[in-house]
What does this fold into?
Amino acid sequence: MNIIAHTDHNSELLSTKISTFIKEFSVGAILKDCNAYKVRGFSIKDVFPVAIENVFCHKSFYQREKTKTSSIPFAKDTFYRFMNSYSINWRKFTLSLGATIINKAISYLTDDDRRNVLIVDDSLFSRSRSKKVELLARVYDHVKHEYTQGFRLLTLGWSDGNSFLPLNHCLLSSAERRNRLQESSSLVDARSNGGKQRKLAQNKAPEVVLTLLKEAKSMKISARHVLFDTWFCSPSSLQNIREIGYDVIAMVKKSETIHFRYQGRMQSPLTIYRKEKKRSGRSKYLLSVMAEVVRDGKSFPVKLVFVRNRNNRSDYLILVSTDITLSEEEIIQTYGKRWGIEVFFKTCKSYLKLGKECRSLSYDAMTAHVAIVFTRYMILSLEQRRNIDKRSLGELFYLAYEEMEDLRYFDALILVMKELVDFVKKKMTVFENELNELMEIFFEELPTLWKRSLKQCAS
It folds into this structure.
C-alpha cells in the first residue's frame, strides 16, 4: 500500500506546529511549575493543546466534543475542570512562557543595543449580557462612550519593535463596591492562586500595573523602558516605576492638574508650551524642555517633548521621558513601539475570540481563557518572526484554520482507506502485490483533488 500514508509528515500542519511549540519551550514543565496538575484522569499536557486548537477549528470545545473526533480522547468534564481550576497560576504561566520565548528564540535575532520595551494598556472585556459572572462590574467603554458590564483587561506586553508578546494580565473588576455587580465566590480559598487573583482584580489599576511590572522584573525580562498612554501618566506613577528599575516614556494628558517643576516653578505642560518658542519648519517635534518631577519631597529630571499631531496639524501631543539620555527623535521612535499592543488587542478580538469563546460564570475560567488566547498569539507572533513573514497575523490565522480543516478531512479519508484494506485482507485471500495493483487502479479513478492530496500525504 504505497499510496496511503501511515504517518503524516507534513510539518506545516498546525497540530504539528503546536506540538513542536509545546516541546521546544517546555510548556509542560512551565504548567507544572505554575501548579497545573491533573486531579484525576488525563494529564494537563493532553488537555492544554486541545484548548489551543479550538479557535483554529472554528468550533467551541462543546461542538468539537459532540463530533466525537479522535483528536479529543477525554470528555467535557475533564476540560471544564481544567478551565475552572483555581490552583493554576495563569499569570505566572504567560509570564514564564513569554520570558522563555524571548530568551530562546528572539533575543539572539536582535542587537544588544536595541531598545526593548514593556507596554501597558487596557481593553474592554465585555460581558454585557451576563448577570451572575464573578466580580462583574460596570466599566466604561471608550469606543461607545457609555458604561457597560464586563472587565478591564489590563495587559503587560513586551516588544523589540518587530515582535510583540503578551506577558501578563489581570481582568480588573472595580475597587469600588458600588460598581461591582457580583462579588467573588466564597468557596474559593483566599490563599490559593485563584483567591489571590480575585483580590488583585479588586485593586486600582495603577497598583495592579506596579504588581505586573515587579513580576516582570523578577523574571529578568530584557527591557529598559515602559510605555503607556495618558490614562496612567502621573508624577506618582513615573516615580514608582522608576523605583522599580525602569525608565518611562509616556504621553502626558493635557491638563492643568498635572505639574512639573520648570525654571524653579511648578507649571503644567500647557503653560510651558504657551510660554516657550516653538521650532520652525518641518521639524519632527515642536518643543523640547528639561523639567523635574517632584513627589513626596523627592525630585528627578525628565524630558518633555511636544510633537505635532499628524491627524490635526493645529494640535500637539506631549511625551515625557525619564531617560534624559535619549534624544527627541529616539523618544518619539521608542514611543511608536506602543502601537504593537493595539494590534494585539485587535487581533485577539477579531480572530482569536478573546471574550467570545468563554461564557463561563467562573473568574478562574475567564482568567484561563485569557492565558490561552495569549498563548495562541505567541504562537502566531513567533511564526511570523521566524519566517520574516510580511503577512498579517490575521492572514496567518486563516492559513492555520485552513490547515486544520484539510488535516481532519484527509485524515478521515486515509482512515477509510486503511479500513478497506484491512477488511479485504481479512475476508479475502489476496497476495500483497495483487492488492497493491488493485489499489493503484482504484487510486487512478479517484478525483484529481483526492489524488493530489493523497500523494502529498504519502510524500
Q: What stands out?
A: The first helix runs from residue 14 to 24. The longest strand covers residues 146-159. Residues 1 and 432 are 8 Å apart (CA to CA).
